What we know:
This protein is of the alpha+beta class. The chain is 26% helix and 18% strand. Helix 16 packs antiparallel against helix 17 (576-593).
Amino acid sequence: MPGICRSRLAAxxxxxxxxASAPNQEDRQEAARLPIHGSRQTVLLVAGHASFALFQRxxxxxxxxxxxxYDDITRLTPRSAGPRWGIFSPMLGLLLVGALLLTxxxxxxxxxxSKTETLRVLPAPNGPNADLFNPFFNYNTPAAWxxxxxxYEVLYSTDLSTGEYHPWLATSYNFSSDNTQLxxxxxxxxxxxxxxxxxxxxxxxxxxxxxxxxxLDQGGVTALIRDITTPDDQTVTFTLTGPNSTALFYLGQTYxxxxxxxxxxxxxxxxxxxxxxxxxTGPYKLRxxxxxxxxxxxxxxxxxxxxxxxxxxxxxxxxxxxxxTNMIQGKYDWLGSAWTPQFDQQFxxxxxxxxxTWFFPSNTVMLYLNLYKAPFNNVLVRKAISAAINRDNLxxxxxxxxxxxxPTGIIPPRKEWIAPEYQNAxxxxxxxxxxxxxxxxxxxxxxxxxxxDSSGKVLGFSIIVPSSxxxxxxxxxxxxNDLNKAGIKATMNxxxxxxxxxxxxxxxNYEAAIGWTDKxxxxxxxxxxxxxxxxSAPPGKSVSGTNFGRWDTHTAGSLATQVDQLLNQYRTTTDxxxxxxxxxxxxxxxxxxxxxxxxxxxxxxxxxxxxxxxxWPDDSNPNIVVPTYxxxxxxxxxxxxxxxx
Length: 645
Protein backbone atom coordinates (compact mmCIF):
# COMPACT_ATOMS: atom_id res chain seq x y z
CA MET A 1 0.00 0.00 0.00
CA PRO A 2 1.42 3.43 -0.88
CA GLY A 3 2.75 5.38 2.05
CA ILE A 4 0.30 8.20 1.54
CA CYS A 5 -2.61 5.83 2.10
CA ARG A 6 -1.06 4.36 5.20
CA SER A 7 -0.30 7.72 6.75
CA ARG A 8 -3.78 8.99 6.07
CA LEU A 9 -5.26 5.88 7.65
CA ALA A 10 -3.05 6.25 10.69
CA ALA A 11 -4.27 9.79 11.15
CA UNK A 12 -7.81 8.61 10.65
CA UNK A 13 -7.46 5.88 13.23
CA UNK A 14 -6.31 8.48 15.69
CA UNK A 15 -9.30 10.63 14.91
CA UNK A 16 -11.61 7.68 15.31
CA UNK A 17 -10.20 6.99 18.74
CA UNK A 18 -10.84 10.53 19.91
CA UNK A 19 -13.16 10.80 22.87
CA ALA A 20 -16.00 13.25 22.94
CA SER A 21 -15.40 13.69 26.64
CA ALA A 22 -13.68 11.96 29.52
CA PRO A 23 -15.38 8.81 30.79
CA ASN A 24 -17.67 9.12 33.75
CA GLN A 25 -15.94 7.11 36.49
CA GLU A 26 -19.13 6.04 38.21
CA ASP A 27 -20.62 4.68 35.01
CA ARG A 28 -17.40 2.96 34.06
CA GLN A 29 -17.69 0.72 37.11
CA GLU A 30 -20.12 -1.26 34.97
CA ALA A 31 -17.87 -1.23 31.93
CA ALA A 32 -18.90 -2.89 28.74
CA ARG A 33 -16.90 -4.50 25.96
CA LEU A 34 -18.13 -2.67 22.92
CA PRO A 35 -17.19 -3.04 19.32
CA ILE A 36 -17.35 0.68 18.79
CA HIS A 37 -17.60 3.90 20.70
CA GLY A 38 -16.55 7.33 19.87
CA SER A 39 -17.49 10.85 19.15
CA ARG A 40 -20.42 11.25 16.81
CA GLN A 41 -18.37 13.86 15.06
CA THR A 42 -15.18 11.89 14.56
CA VAL A 43 -15.83 8.20 14.32
CA LEU A 44 -18.35 7.39 11.64
CA LEU A 45 -19.68 8.66 8.39
CA VAL A 46 -23.31 7.67 8.16
CA ALA A 47 -24.90 7.79 4.76
CA GLY A 48 -28.18 6.49 3.37
CA HIS A 49 -29.43 3.09 4.46
CA ALA A 50 -32.01 0.75 3.08
CA SER A 51 -32.46 -0.84 6.47
CA PHE A 52 -31.01 -0.43 9.92
CA ALA A 53 -28.98 -3.49 9.39
CA LEU A 54 -25.72 -1.75 8.75
CA PHE A 55 -25.71 -0.73 12.38
CA GLN A 56 -26.82 -4.05 13.77
CA ARG A 57 -23.37 -5.33 14.52
CA UNK A 58 -21.72 -2.10 15.58
CA UNK A 59 -22.39 -2.80 19.02
CA UNK A 60 -22.89 -5.70 20.59
CA UNK A 61 -23.20 -5.74 21.09
CA UNK A 62 -23.17 -4.93 19.96
CA UNK A 63 -23.14 -5.67 19.45
CA UNK A 64 -23.43 -7.57 21.64
CA UNK A 65 -22.84 -6.25 25.04
CA UNK A 66 -23.18 -3.98 27.96
CA UNK A 67 -23.84 -0.28 27.66
CA UNK A 68 -21.67 2.62 26.79
CA UNK A 69 -19.95 4.04 29.81
CA TYR A 70 -19.62 7.55 28.52
CA ASP A 71 -21.95 10.44 29.19
CA ASP A 72 -21.21 12.40 26.04
CA ILE A 73 -20.40 9.67 23.58
CA THR A 74 -23.02 8.23 21.32
CA ARG A 75 -22.59 4.54 20.90
CA LEU A 76 -23.95 3.40 17.58
CA THR A 77 -25.49 0.19 18.81
CA PRO A 78 -26.98 -2.45 16.57
CA ARG A 79 -30.63 -3.32 16.51
CA SER A 80 -29.49 -6.86 16.52
CA ALA A 81 -26.06 -8.24 16.53
CA GLY A 82 -25.92 -8.56 12.83
CA PRO A 83 -26.19 -6.69 9.61
CA ARG A 84 -29.31 -6.42 7.53
CA TRP A 85 -27.40 -4.42 4.99
CA GLY A 86 -29.73 -2.37 2.88
CA ILE A 87 -32.06 -4.95 1.53
CA PHE A 88 -34.70 -2.96 -0.14
CA SER A 89 -32.99 -0.20 -2.04
CA PRO A 90 -29.47 0.84 -2.99
CA MET A 91 -27.47 2.19 -0.10
CA LEU A 92 -24.33 4.07 0.58
CA GLY A 93 -24.01 2.34 3.91
CA LEU A 94 -21.90 2.95 6.92
CA LEU A 95 -18.29 3.50 5.96
CA LEU A 96 -15.31 4.23 8.04
CA VAL A 97 -14.18 7.50 6.53
CA GLY A 98 -10.76 6.07 5.85
CA ALA A 99 -12.16 3.31 3.73
CA LEU A 100 -13.09 5.94 1.20
CA LEU A 101 -9.46 6.93 1.00
CA LEU A 102 -8.38 3.38 0.35
CA THR A 103 -10.36 2.62 -2.77
CA UNK A 104 -7.52 3.65 -5.04
CA UNK A 105 -4.73 2.54 -2.73
CA UNK A 106 -4.17 -0.77 -4.45
CA UNK A 107 -6.05 -3.90 -5.38
CA UNK A 108 -5.21 -7.55 -5.40
CA UNK A 109 -6.87 -10.65 -6.71
CA UNK A 110 -6.73 -14.06 -5.09
CA UNK A 111 -4.35 -16.59 -6.48
CA UNK A 112 -5.80 -19.90 -7.58
CA UNK A 113 -6.46 -22.02 -4.50
CA SER A 114 -8.32 -25.19 -3.77
CA LYS A 115 -11.84 -24.42 -2.67
CA THR A 116 -11.57 -27.34 -0.26
CA GLU A 117 -8.81 -25.46 1.58
CA THR A 118 -10.07 -21.91 1.16
CA LEU A 119 -13.04 -20.29 2.88
CA ARG A 120 -14.51 -17.32 1.01
CA VAL A 121 -16.23 -14.91 3.39
CA LEU A 122 -18.02 -11.60 3.29
CA PRO A 123 -18.64 -10.63 6.93
CA ALA A 124 -20.62 -7.55 5.97
CA PRO A 125 -21.15 -5.52 2.77
CA ASN A 126 -19.93 -2.16 3.98
CA GLY A 127 -17.70 -0.93 1.20
CA PRO A 128 -13.96 -1.13 0.60
CA ASN A 129 -11.70 -2.54 3.28
CA ALA A 130 -9.88 -0.20 5.62
CA ASP A 131 -6.28 -1.01 6.53
CA LEU A 132 -6.85 -1.26 10.28
CA PHE A 133 -5.78 -4.40 12.14
CA ASN A 134 -5.71 -2.84 15.60
CA PRO A 135 -7.64 -5.32 17.80
CA PHE A 136 -8.70 -2.65 20.26
CA PHE A 137 -11.12 -1.19 17.72
CA ASN A 138 -13.91 -2.69 15.71
CA TYR A 139 -14.91 -0.43 12.85
CA ASN A 140 -17.23 -3.06 11.42
CA THR A 141 -14.76 -3.75 8.63
CA PRO A 142 -13.28 -7.00 7.30
CA ALA A 143 -9.87 -5.99 8.69
CA ALA A 144 -11.26 -5.55 12.19
CA TRP A 145 -13.21 -8.79 11.78
CA UNK A 146 -9.95 -10.61 11.11
CA UNK A 147 -7.98 -8.86 13.82
CA UNK A 148 -10.57 -9.80 16.42
CA UNK A 149 -10.48 -13.58 16.37
CA UNK A 150 -8.32 -14.72 13.48
CA UNK A 151 -5.21 -12.83 14.63
CA TYR A 152 -5.83 -11.87 18.26
CA GLU A 153 -7.68 -13.85 20.89
CA VAL A 154 -9.47 -13.45 24.19
CA LEU A 155 -9.14 -15.21 27.52
CA TYR A 156 -12.70 -16.50 27.50
CA SER A 157 -15.18 -16.55 24.64
CA THR A 158 -18.90 -16.06 25.22
CA ASP A 159 -21.44 -17.83 23.05
CA LEU A 160 -24.19 -15.25 22.89
CA SER A 161 -26.63 -17.78 21.48
CA THR A 162 -26.44 -19.96 24.59
CA GLY A 163 -24.92 -17.62 27.18
CA GLU A 164 -22.14 -20.14 27.80
CA TYR A 165 -18.51 -19.21 28.46
CA HIS A 166 -15.79 -21.14 26.66
CA PRO A 167 -12.11 -21.26 27.66
CA TRP A 168 -9.77 -19.80 25.09
CA LEU A 169 -6.38 -18.38 26.03
CA ALA A 170 -7.33 -19.23 29.60
CA THR A 171 -8.34 -22.77 30.51
CA SER A 172 -10.23 -21.89 33.68
CA TYR A 173 -11.14 -19.05 36.02
CA ASN A 174 -12.31 -18.58 39.57
CA PHE A 175 -13.77 -15.78 41.65
CA SER A 176 -12.84 -15.14 45.25
CA SER A 177 -15.53 -15.88 47.80
CA ASP A 178 -16.55 -12.21 47.91
CA ASN A 179 -16.37 -11.79 44.10
CA THR A 180 -13.77 -9.04 44.38
CA GLN A 181 -11.00 -11.03 42.69
CA LEU A 182 -11.05 -12.86 39.37
CA UNK A 183 -8.21 -15.23 38.53
CA UNK A 184 -7.54 -16.68 35.08
CA UNK A 185 -5.39 -19.76 34.61
CA UNK A 186 -3.74 -19.47 31.22
CA UNK A 187 -3.33 -22.17 28.63
CA UNK A 188 0.25 -23.50 28.69
CA UNK A 189 2.55 -23.69 25.67
CA UNK A 190 0.77 -20.99 23.68
CA UNK A 191 3.03 -19.00 21.39
CA UNK A 192 2.68 -15.81 19.45
CA UNK A 193 2.94 -16.37 15.72
CA UNK A 194 6.53 -15.05 15.79
CA UNK A 195 7.51 -17.89 18.13
CA UNK A 196 7.62 -15.95 21.41
CA UNK A 197 5.77 -17.49 24.39
CA UNK A 198 2.42 -16.12 25.54
CA UNK A 199 2.42 -15.47 29.30
CA UNK A 200 0.54 -13.66 32.03
CA UNK A 201 2.88 -10.71 31.47
CA UNK A 202 1.16 -10.15 28.12
CA UNK A 203 -2.24 -10.11 29.79
CA UNK A 204 -1.16 -7.61 32.42
CA UNK A 205 0.57 -5.49 29.79
CA UNK A 206 -2.61 -5.38 27.67
CA UNK A 207 -4.74 -3.99 30.47
CA UNK A 208 -2.00 -1.63 31.63
CA UNK A 209 -1.72 -0.36 28.06
CA UNK A 210 -5.44 0.28 27.93
CA UNK A 211 -5.30 2.16 31.20
CA UNK A 212 -2.37 4.28 30.02
CA UNK A 213 -4.08 4.99 26.70
CA UNK A 214 -7.82 5.38 27.41
CA UNK A 215 -8.64 5.56 23.70
CA LEU A 216 -7.84 1.84 23.56
CA ASP A 217 -10.26 1.09 26.38
CA GLN A 218 -13.37 1.28 24.26
CA GLY A 219 -15.54 -0.45 26.84
CA GLY A 220 -14.06 1.20 29.91
CA VAL A 221 -13.07 -2.19 31.32
CA THR A 222 -10.05 -0.88 33.21
CA ALA A 223 -12.43 0.95 35.53
CA LEU A 224 -13.37 -2.46 36.91
CA ILE A 225 -9.79 -3.16 37.96
CA ARG A 226 -8.03 -2.08 41.14
CA ASP A 227 -4.89 -4.14 40.63
CA ILE A 228 -3.39 -6.92 38.49
CA THR A 229 -0.90 -9.50 39.71
CA THR A 230 0.88 -12.33 37.91
CA PRO A 231 1.99 -15.00 40.42
CA ASP A 232 3.47 -17.04 37.59
CA ASP A 233 3.54 -17.21 33.79
CA GLN A 234 0.21 -19.02 33.63
CA THR A 235 -1.76 -17.11 36.27
CA VAL A 236 -3.18 -13.61 36.31
CA THR A 237 -5.36 -12.21 39.09
CA PHE A 238 -7.54 -9.12 38.77
CA THR A 239 -8.48 -7.37 41.99
CA LEU A 240 -11.72 -5.59 41.21
CA THR A 241 -13.00 -2.28 42.49
CA GLY A 242 -15.92 -4.12 44.04
CA PRO A 243 -17.77 -7.44 43.87
CA ASN A 244 -18.66 -7.96 40.23
CA SER A 245 -19.54 -11.30 38.65
CA THR A 246 -19.97 -9.63 35.26
CA ALA A 247 -16.22 -8.99 35.15
CA LEU A 248 -15.80 -12.40 33.54
CA PHE A 249 -17.77 -11.23 30.52
CA TYR A 250 -15.99 -7.91 30.20
CA LEU A 251 -12.40 -8.84 31.08
CA GLY A 252 -12.57 -12.28 29.52
CA GLN A 253 -13.43 -10.88 26.12
CA THR A 254 -10.60 -8.37 25.90
CA TYR A 255 -8.15 -9.06 23.08
CA UNK A 256 -4.64 -9.73 24.35
CA UNK A 257 -1.63 -8.24 22.56
CA UNK A 258 2.06 -9.21 22.82
CA UNK A 259 4.13 -7.09 25.17
CA UNK A 260 7.31 -7.63 23.16
CA UNK A 261 5.68 -6.00 20.11
CA UNK A 262 3.32 -3.37 21.45
CA UNK A 263 5.78 -2.03 24.02
CA UNK A 264 8.03 -0.99 21.13
CA UNK A 265 5.40 1.02 19.26
CA UNK A 266 6.48 4.61 18.84
CA UNK A 267 3.70 7.10 19.23
CA UNK A 268 0.08 6.59 20.12
CA UNK A 269 -0.98 2.91 19.99
CA UNK A 270 -4.49 4.05 19.16
CA UNK A 271 -3.11 5.20 15.80
CA UNK A 272 -1.31 1.94 15.13
CA UNK A 273 -2.78 0.37 11.97
CA UNK A 274 -0.85 -2.85 12.64
CA UNK A 275 -0.80 -3.84 8.97
CA UNK A 276 2.77 -5.17 8.84
CA UNK A 277 2.81 -8.84 9.86
CA UNK A 278 0.55 -8.56 12.92
CA UNK A 279 1.75 -10.76 15.78
CA UNK A 280 -1.09 -12.66 17.45
CA THR A 281 -1.90 -16.00 19.02
CA GLY A 282 -4.80 -16.69 16.67
CA PRO A 283 -5.25 -19.52 14.16
CA TYR A 284 -4.39 -17.37 11.14
CA LYS A 285 -1.76 -14.94 9.92
CA LEU A 286 -2.21 -12.01 7.59
CA ARG A 287 -0.87 -12.68 4.10
CA UNK A 288 -2.04 -9.63 2.16
CA UNK A 289 -4.42 -6.71 2.19
CA UNK A 290 -6.18 -4.64 -0.43
CA UNK A 291 -9.33 -2.55 -0.48
CA UNK A 292 -11.10 -5.45 -2.18
CA UNK A 293 -9.62 -8.52 -0.55
CA UNK A 294 -7.84 -9.62 2.63
CA UNK A 295 -6.12 -13.00 2.67
CA UNK A 296 -5.25 -14.99 5.78
CA UNK A 297 -3.22 -18.18 5.93
CA UNK A 298 -3.27 -20.75 8.70
CA UNK A 299 -0.86 -20.21 11.60
CA UNK A 300 1.34 -23.34 11.51
CA UNK A 301 2.13 -23.06 15.23
CA UNK A 302 -1.43 -22.48 16.45
CA UNK A 303 -1.99 -23.91 19.93
CA UNK A 304 -5.37 -25.34 18.97
CA UNK A 305 -4.05 -27.53 16.18
CA UNK A 306 -4.38 -27.07 12.46
CA UNK A 307 -7.81 -26.04 11.15
CA UNK A 308 -9.13 -27.71 8.02
CA UNK A 309 -9.58 -24.23 6.54
CA UNK A 310 -6.06 -23.32 5.41
CA UNK A 311 -6.82 -19.98 3.78
CA UNK A 312 -9.49 -17.36 4.33
CA UNK A 313 -10.38 -14.86 1.62
CA UNK A 314 -12.28 -11.92 3.11
CA UNK A 315 -14.01 -9.89 0.42
CA UNK A 316 -15.60 -6.47 0.33
CA UNK A 317 -18.85 -5.43 -1.32
CA UNK A 318 -20.32 -2.00 -1.76
CA UNK A 319 -23.88 -2.90 -0.80
CA UNK A 320 -26.32 -5.64 0.05
CA UNK A 321 -27.43 -6.16 -3.54
CA UNK A 322 -23.87 -6.86 -4.64
CA UNK A 323 -23.28 -9.17 -1.70
CA UNK A 324 -26.40 -11.24 -2.25
CA THR A 325 -25.82 -11.43 -6.00
CA ASN A 326 -22.30 -12.72 -5.40
CA MET A 327 -23.56 -15.26 -2.87
CA ILE A 328 -26.21 -16.55 -5.27
CA GLN A 329 -23.57 -16.81 -8.00
CA GLY A 330 -21.36 -18.94 -5.74
CA LYS A 331 -18.60 -16.40 -5.12
CA TYR A 332 -18.77 -16.74 -1.32
CA ASP A 333 -19.03 -19.68 1.04
CA TRP A 334 -20.35 -17.61 3.95
CA LEU A 335 -22.30 -14.38 4.16
CA GLY A 336 -24.06 -12.45 6.90
CA SER A 337 -26.69 -10.31 5.22
CA ALA A 338 -30.28 -9.38 5.84
CA TRP A 339 -32.62 -11.62 3.98
CA THR A 340 -36.11 -11.90 2.52
CA PRO A 341 -38.13 -14.83 1.18
CA GLN A 342 -37.44 -13.52 -2.31
CA PHE A 343 -33.68 -13.85 -1.78
CA ASP A 344 -34.24 -17.23 -0.17
CA GLN A 345 -36.00 -18.57 -3.24
CA GLN A 346 -33.33 -17.28 -5.62
CA PHE A 347 -30.48 -18.55 -3.47
CA UNK A 348 -31.81 -22.03 -2.77
CA UNK A 349 -33.13 -22.66 -6.27
CA UNK A 350 -29.63 -22.02 -7.61
CA UNK A 351 -28.28 -25.02 -5.68
CA UNK A 352 -31.00 -26.65 -3.54
CA UNK A 353 -28.64 -29.30 -2.21
CA UNK A 354 -25.99 -26.97 -0.84
CA UNK A 355 -27.29 -23.43 -0.41
CA UNK A 356 -28.55 -22.95 3.14
CA THR A 357 -29.74 -20.23 5.50
CA TRP A 358 -30.20 -20.31 9.25
CA PHE A 359 -31.55 -17.42 11.28
CA PHE A 360 -31.40 -17.32 15.06
CA PRO A 361 -33.08 -14.97 17.58
CA SER A 362 -30.77 -12.12 18.44
CA ASN A 363 -32.37 -9.27 20.38
CA THR A 364 -35.62 -7.43 20.95
CA VAL A 365 -36.94 -4.46 18.99
CA MET A 366 -38.53 -1.89 21.27
CA LEU A 367 -40.84 1.06 20.95
CA TYR A 368 -39.15 3.61 23.19
CA LEU A 369 -41.27 6.38 24.72
CA ASN A 370 -39.60 9.51 26.06
CA LEU A 371 -40.62 9.26 29.69
CA TYR A 372 -39.62 12.86 30.37
CA LYS A 373 -42.53 13.93 28.19
CA ALA A 374 -46.21 13.65 29.03
CA PRO A 375 -48.28 11.59 28.54
CA PHE A 376 -45.66 8.83 28.37
CA ASN A 377 -44.95 9.19 32.09
CA ASN A 378 -48.43 7.72 32.63
CA VAL A 379 -48.27 3.92 32.73
CA LEU A 380 -51.91 3.67 31.60
CA VAL A 381 -51.02 5.46 28.38
CA ARG A 382 -48.07 3.14 27.87
CA LYS A 383 -50.35 0.14 28.39
CA ALA A 384 -52.87 1.57 25.93
CA ILE A 385 -50.20 2.02 23.28
CA SER A 386 -48.98 -1.52 23.77
CA ALA A 387 -52.46 -3.05 23.65
CA ALA A 388 -53.25 -1.17 20.44
CA ILE A 389 -50.33 -2.71 18.51
CA ASN A 390 -51.04 -5.88 16.55
CA ARG A 391 -47.59 -7.47 16.72
CA ASP A 392 -48.64 -10.38 14.54
CA ASN A 393 -48.87 -7.97 11.62
CA LEU A 394 -45.38 -6.52 12.00
CA UNK A 395 -43.47 -9.42 10.38
CA UNK A 396 -45.82 -9.12 7.41
CA UNK A 397 -44.18 -5.81 6.58
CA UNK A 398 -40.54 -6.36 5.72
CA UNK A 399 -39.13 -7.86 8.92
CA UNK A 400 -40.06 -11.26 7.55
CA UNK A 401 -38.16 -13.41 10.00
CA UNK A 402 -39.03 -11.42 13.13
CA UNK A 403 -41.51 -12.89 15.59
CA UNK A 404 -43.59 -11.05 18.20
CA UNK A 405 -41.58 -10.26 21.32
CA UNK A 406 -42.20 -11.66 24.79
CA PRO A 407 -43.72 -9.21 27.30
CA THR A 408 -40.54 -9.40 29.39
CA GLY A 409 -38.43 -8.43 26.37
CA ILE A 410 -36.39 -11.61 26.83
CA ILE A 411 -35.53 -13.48 23.64
CA PRO A 412 -36.40 -17.19 23.18
CA PRO A 413 -32.84 -18.52 23.75
CA ARG A 414 -32.97 -16.98 27.25
CA LYS A 415 -36.38 -18.39 28.16
CA GLU A 416 -34.92 -20.23 31.17
CA TRP A 417 -34.55 -16.78 32.75
CA ILE A 418 -38.25 -16.00 32.45
CA ALA A 419 -40.13 -16.22 35.75
CA PRO A 420 -42.63 -19.08 36.02
CA GLU A 421 -45.54 -16.64 36.12
CA TYR A 422 -44.53 -15.20 32.73
CA GLN A 423 -43.41 -18.34 30.91
CA ASN A 424 -46.56 -18.49 28.81
CA ALA A 425 -47.25 -14.76 28.68
CA UNK A 426 -48.03 -13.13 25.34
CA UNK A 427 -49.12 -9.70 24.22
CA UNK A 428 -52.85 -9.44 23.57
CA UNK A 429 -53.92 -7.13 20.78
CA UNK A 430 -57.12 -5.40 21.87
CA UNK A 431 -58.45 -2.05 20.69
CA UNK A 432 -61.16 -2.14 23.34
CA UNK A 433 -58.60 -2.75 26.10
CA UNK A 434 -56.43 0.09 24.79
CA UNK A 435 -59.40 2.43 24.87
CA UNK A 436 -60.34 1.27 28.36
CA UNK A 437 -56.84 2.18 29.58
CA UNK A 438 -57.16 5.64 28.03
CA UNK A 439 -60.53 6.26 29.66
CA UNK A 440 -59.08 5.13 32.98
CA UNK A 441 -56.28 7.66 32.43
CA UNK A 442 -58.85 10.46 32.07
CA UNK A 443 -59.08 10.71 28.29
CA UNK A 444 -62.36 10.98 26.42
CA UNK A 445 -63.06 9.93 22.84
CA UNK A 446 -64.51 12.62 20.58
CA UNK A 447 -66.62 12.31 17.47
CA UNK A 448 -63.51 12.28 15.27
CA UNK A 449 -62.52 9.00 16.89
CA UNK A 450 -59.48 10.39 18.74
CA UNK A 451 -58.94 10.66 22.48
CA UNK A 452 -58.48 14.05 24.17
CA ASP A 453 -57.31 15.03 27.64
CA SER A 454 -59.25 17.27 30.00
CA SER A 455 -57.72 20.41 28.48
CA GLY A 456 -58.95 19.48 25.02
CA LYS A 457 -55.57 18.38 23.67
CA VAL A 458 -55.63 15.39 21.39
CA LEU A 459 -53.55 12.36 22.38
CA GLY A 460 -51.02 12.24 19.59
CA PHE A 461 -47.33 11.85 18.95
CA SER A 462 -44.81 10.97 16.26
CA ILE A 463 -42.56 7.92 16.05
CA ILE A 464 -39.12 8.55 14.62
CA VAL A 465 -37.24 6.21 12.30
CA PRO A 466 -34.72 6.82 9.52
CA SER A 467 -36.86 6.68 6.39
CA SER A 468 -34.21 4.68 4.54
CA UNK A 469 -34.35 1.86 7.12
CA UNK A 470 -37.26 0.46 5.19
CA UNK A 471 -37.78 -2.61 7.36
CA UNK A 472 -38.31 -0.55 10.49
CA UNK A 473 -40.05 2.24 8.61
CA UNK A 474 -42.61 -0.32 7.45
CA UNK A 475 -43.03 -1.58 11.01
CA UNK A 476 -43.58 1.96 12.24
CA UNK A 477 -46.23 2.55 9.59
CA UNK A 478 -48.06 -0.58 10.75
CA UNK A 479 -47.85 0.67 14.35
CA UNK A 480 -49.10 4.13 13.39
CA ASN A 481 -52.08 2.62 11.60
CA ASP A 482 -52.91 0.47 14.63
CA LEU A 483 -52.68 3.40 17.03
CA ASN A 484 -54.95 5.56 14.89
CA LYS A 485 -57.53 2.77 14.78
CA ALA A 486 -57.53 2.83 18.58
CA GLY A 487 -57.99 6.60 18.72
CA ILE A 488 -54.39 7.68 19.24
CA LYS A 489 -53.29 10.24 16.66
CA ALA A 490 -49.86 8.86 15.82
CA THR A 491 -47.66 9.73 12.86
CA MET A 492 -44.38 8.47 11.48
CA ASN A 493 -41.48 10.91 11.37
CA UNK A 494 -39.23 9.43 8.70
CA UNK A 495 -35.87 11.10 9.21
CA UNK A 496 -33.69 11.78 6.21
CA UNK A 497 -30.53 10.34 7.71
CA UNK A 498 -29.43 8.13 10.55
CA UNK A 499 -27.35 10.84 12.23
CA UNK A 500 -30.49 12.85 12.93
CA UNK A 501 -32.17 9.79 14.39
CA UNK A 502 -29.22 8.93 16.62
CA UNK A 503 -28.94 12.50 17.81
CA UNK A 504 -32.62 12.47 18.72
CA UNK A 505 -32.75 9.18 20.63
CA UNK A 506 -29.51 9.75 22.51
CA UNK A 507 -30.23 13.40 23.22
CA UNK A 508 -33.90 12.95 24.12
CA ASN A 509 -35.29 15.18 21.37
CA TYR A 510 -38.13 12.88 20.36
CA GLU A 511 -41.49 11.58 21.53
CA ALA A 512 -41.40 7.92 20.48
CA ALA A 513 -38.84 5.88 18.57
CA ILE A 514 -38.32 2.37 17.34
CA GLY A 515 -35.00 1.03 18.61
CA TRP A 516 -32.92 -1.97 19.59
CA THR A 517 -31.74 -3.72 22.72
CA ASP A 518 -28.26 -5.00 23.41
CA LYS A 519 -27.00 -8.56 23.63
CA UNK A 520 -25.34 -10.49 26.39
CA UNK A 521 -25.05 -13.97 27.88
CA UNK A 522 -28.04 -13.37 30.18
CA UNK A 523 -30.93 -10.86 30.30
CA UNK A 524 -28.95 -8.81 32.82
CA UNK A 525 -26.95 -7.16 30.05
CA UNK A 526 -29.79 -5.81 27.89
CA UNK A 527 -31.78 -4.94 31.02
CA UNK A 528 -28.86 -3.04 32.49
CA UNK A 529 -28.25 -1.08 29.31
CA UNK A 530 -31.92 -0.19 28.97
CA UNK A 531 -32.98 0.38 32.58
CA UNK A 532 -29.99 1.33 34.73
CA UNK A 533 -30.53 4.86 35.99
CA UNK A 534 -26.79 5.41 35.54
CA UNK A 535 -27.41 5.22 31.81
CA SER A 536 -30.11 7.88 31.88
CA ALA A 537 -29.68 11.63 31.54
CA PRO A 538 -31.85 14.73 31.66
CA PRO A 539 -33.18 16.09 28.36
CA GLY A 540 -30.46 17.54 26.19
CA LYS A 541 -27.80 15.26 27.64
CA SER A 542 -26.74 12.04 25.96
CA VAL A 543 -27.85 8.77 27.51
CA SER A 544 -25.67 5.67 27.63
CA GLY A 545 -26.46 2.11 26.68
CA THR A 546 -30.00 1.87 25.34
CA ASN A 547 -31.81 3.82 28.06
CA PHE A 548 -33.48 5.90 25.36
CA GLY A 549 -36.68 6.18 27.39
CA ARG A 550 -34.70 7.78 30.22
CA TRP A 551 -35.91 5.41 32.93
CA ASP A 552 -34.59 6.96 36.15
CA THR A 553 -35.72 8.26 39.51
CA HIS A 554 -37.12 11.42 37.88
CA THR A 555 -39.39 9.48 35.52
CA ALA A 556 -39.99 6.31 37.53
CA GLY A 557 -39.27 7.23 41.15
CA SER A 558 -38.76 4.30 43.49
CA LEU A 559 -39.28 1.82 40.65
CA ALA A 560 -36.03 3.00 39.08
CA THR A 561 -34.29 2.62 42.42
CA GLN A 562 -35.71 -0.89 42.68
CA VAL A 563 -34.33 -1.81 39.25
CA ASP A 564 -30.90 -0.47 40.20
CA GLN A 565 -30.95 -2.57 43.37
CA LEU A 566 -31.91 -5.68 41.41
CA LEU A 567 -29.14 -5.06 38.89
CA ASN A 568 -26.70 -4.71 41.77
CA GLN A 569 -28.04 -7.92 43.33
CA TYR A 570 -27.27 -9.76 40.11
CA ARG A 571 -23.85 -8.20 39.65
CA THR A 572 -22.49 -8.87 43.12
CA THR A 573 -23.13 -12.63 43.19
CA THR A 574 -22.24 -15.70 41.17
CA ASP A 575 -25.17 -17.67 42.60
CA UNK A 576 -27.44 -18.24 39.60
CA UNK A 577 -30.51 -18.65 41.79
CA UNK A 578 -29.93 -15.25 43.38
CA UNK A 579 -29.28 -13.80 39.93
CA UNK A 580 -32.53 -15.27 38.61
CA UNK A 581 -34.47 -13.74 41.48
CA UNK A 582 -33.02 -10.37 40.49
CA UNK A 583 -33.95 -10.84 36.84
CA UNK A 584 -37.45 -11.97 37.78
CA UNK A 585 -37.90 -8.77 39.75
CA UNK A 586 -36.96 -6.70 36.72
CA UNK A 587 -39.28 -8.77 34.53
CA UNK A 588 -42.20 -7.87 36.79
CA UNK A 589 -41.45 -4.18 36.30
CA UNK A 590 -41.08 -4.67 32.54
CA UNK A 591 -44.45 -6.40 32.28
CA UNK A 592 -46.38 -4.15 34.64
CA UNK A 593 -44.77 -0.78 33.96
CA UNK A 594 -43.67 -1.03 30.30
CA UNK A 595 -40.62 1.27 30.59
CA UNK A 596 -40.15 0.29 26.94
CA UNK A 597 -42.63 -1.60 24.76
CA UNK A 598 -41.32 -4.86 23.24
CA UNK A 599 -42.30 -5.33 19.59
CA UNK A 600 -40.50 -8.13 17.75
CA UNK A 601 -37.45 -10.37 18.00
CA UNK A 602 -34.61 -9.74 15.57
CA UNK A 603 -32.55 -12.56 14.14
CA UNK A 604 -28.90 -13.08 13.30
CA UNK A 605 -28.30 -13.74 9.63
CA UNK A 606 -26.37 -16.73 8.32
CA UNK A 607 -26.17 -17.71 4.65
CA UNK A 608 -23.74 -20.41 3.58
CA UNK A 609 -23.09 -23.19 1.12
CA UNK A 610 -22.21 -26.76 2.05
CA UNK A 611 -20.71 -27.42 -1.37
CA UNK A 612 -17.13 -27.24 -0.12
CA UNK A 613 -17.44 -27.12 3.69
CA UNK A 614 -19.52 -28.97 6.28
CA UNK A 615 -20.13 -28.31 9.97
CA TRP A 616 -22.19 -25.14 9.59
CA PRO A 617 -24.72 -24.15 12.26
CA ASP A 618 -28.21 -25.47 11.58
CA ASP A 619 -31.09 -27.11 13.40
CA SER A 620 -29.10 -30.32 13.78
CA ASN A 621 -25.96 -28.49 14.90
CA PRO A 622 -27.23 -25.52 16.93
CA ASN A 623 -24.40 -25.41 19.43
CA ILE A 624 -22.36 -23.06 17.23
CA VAL A 625 -24.80 -20.24 16.59
CA VAL A 626 -22.67 -17.44 15.26
CA PRO A 627 -23.22 -15.14 12.28
CA THR A 628 -20.27 -14.03 10.17
CA TYR A 629 -20.15 -10.59 11.71
CA UNK A 630 -20.02 -11.57 15.40
CA UNK A 631 -16.45 -11.46 16.65
CA UNK A 632 -14.54 -13.21 18.05
CA UNK A 633 -17.11 -15.99 17.90
CA UNK A 634 -17.08 -16.40 14.13
CA UNK A 635 -13.73 -18.14 14.46
CA UNK A 636 -15.49 -20.92 16.39
CA UNK A 637 -17.52 -21.72 13.30
CA UNK A 638 -14.42 -21.66 11.10
CA UNK A 639 -12.51 -24.01 13.41
CA UNK A 640 -15.38 -26.51 13.28
CA UNK A 641 -15.58 -26.64 9.48
CA UNK A 642 -14.47 -29.73 7.60
CA UNK A 643 -14.18 -30.35 3.85
CA UNK A 644 -17.48 -31.50 2.41
CA UNK A 645 -17.62 -35.13 1.39
